[in-house]
Amino acid sequence: MAMTTRVYNFGAGPAMLPESLLKEAQTELLNWHNLGVSVLEVGHRTSECVALLEHAERTLRELLGIPSNYQVLFLGGAARTQFAMIPMNLLYPEEQAGYLVTGVWSHMAFSEALRLKRAYCVASDEANQYKTIPDPKTWEFKEPTSYIYYTPNETINGIRFPYIPKTKGSTLIADMTSCLLAEPIDVTRFGLIFAGAQKNIANAGLTVVIIREDLLSRIPNPPIPSMLDYKIQAQHHSLYATPPVFNCYIAAKMFDWIKAQGGVETLFHLNCQKAARLYQYLDSSDFYTTKIDKEVRSLMNVCFSLKNEKLEPEFLHLAERAGLYALKGHRLVGGIRASLYNAMPMAGVDALIDFMSEFAKEHSR
Ligand SMILES: Cc1ncc(COP(=O)(O)O)c(C=O)c1O
Asked: Which of 75, 281, 273, 283 is nearest to 193 (CA)?
């Protein structure tokens, strides 16, 4: 239905952005930096654009405490390009990598690695339909292992690692697409972190990569396309090809916004409160249910269902009419999913809970 005002967008990505940021971009769109042209029209090697990328990188480094021996790359393209770039760059033909398969995204990354190089599964909860993270005591490591790959937040299944996995000395690689900047991290524990922008960073089409410099000294074997080579991208400071400038512009604004909110620690505190309020409501209800183990519930993507699944289409229809947008669960798992990224205010969670209790009351009679 047509909406004349903005609604609460619970979509998993592309996701809600702060309204103040969108308004700023709107105001600046026709004339950026008094250049008389839009940021969409500016050459990527102009001093303004280079300064924009430098500002984005500086702020991101500050927000996450990224040490100087890590490079930050702003790459064009989808997050899943990294599923291929990681094994192509970091595995020699005789080497192998271990994958923790805790949901749809890590499963897809594992399958892609298998297509290209040697990879094995350290642990998987697929047989259990991804309800939990297998006990680390059951994980099987092979010697030697070049890197261990995992997905700290599985966006589709709603599963979050409440700890950083131990790797027996192997380099750790993390797909933080749906959790980067939502909670503090110790970057030094990772060899490589990547995140598609479309959740907590910017509009879709940009992927941020944070890579430890020693990993850039490897010469990919067999040779790989230049565009997919981390070293070439790093040598050119993300300007090897034309980068997604508008996405970087939105990302820079998002990083500034996060800083203005008090930083990642402050947002993490708020994110914990938002998720806790919704899970508390779900746990207290006979009408809704969630199957994910309590210890591993996602802070960003709260997945649940109605006990009477036949009511879900009506739930989604009425929710949208009430200004609660994009609550439908991913097509692979069904049900309902409320994504609570950084830009979602507590008022959005409260509005959702009010709607859910009203709906439950109406349909329990
Ligand atoms: C954790 C995670 N990894 C990877 C992806 C894939 O992103 P893209 O569509 O940009 O390839 C997503 C998308 O939602 C995701 O949530």
From this structure: 75
- Six-digit token string for 38: 């839009």
Which of 155, 298, 301 is the best mutation target for the ligand 1 pocket, counting ligand atoms within 8 Å of the beta carbon and taking the most?
A: 155
> Active-site residue 105, yes or no?
yes
* 253 is a catalytic site residue: no
Catalytic residue at 214?
no
At 206, which helix (H) or strand (E)? Answer: strand 206-212
Q: Edge to edge, what strands does the sheet with 301-306 contain?
A: 288-289, 301-306, 336-339
How many A from CA of 31 to the centre of ligand 1?
33
What does the pLDDT read at residue 1?
59
The amino acid that residue 354 corresponds to is: D
Contact 190, 173 (CB under 8 A): yes
**57-93 pLDDT, tens per residue?**
999 999 999 999 999 999 999 999 999 999 999 999 9
pLDDT above 80 (res 174): yes
Cα 148 to Cα 170: distance, rounded to the nearest angstrom: 6
Q: How many CB atoms lie within 10 A of CB 218?
A: 15
Could you give the CA distance from residue 100 to residue 74 in angstroms, rounded to a whole number? 26
Q: Is the CB of 155 within 6 Å of ligand 1?
A: yes
The residue whose C-alpha atom lies closest to atom 7 belonging to ligand 1 is 79
pLDDT in tens, 221-276: 899 999 999 999 999 999 999 999 999 999 999 999 999 999 999 999 999 999 99
The structure's pTM equals 0.98
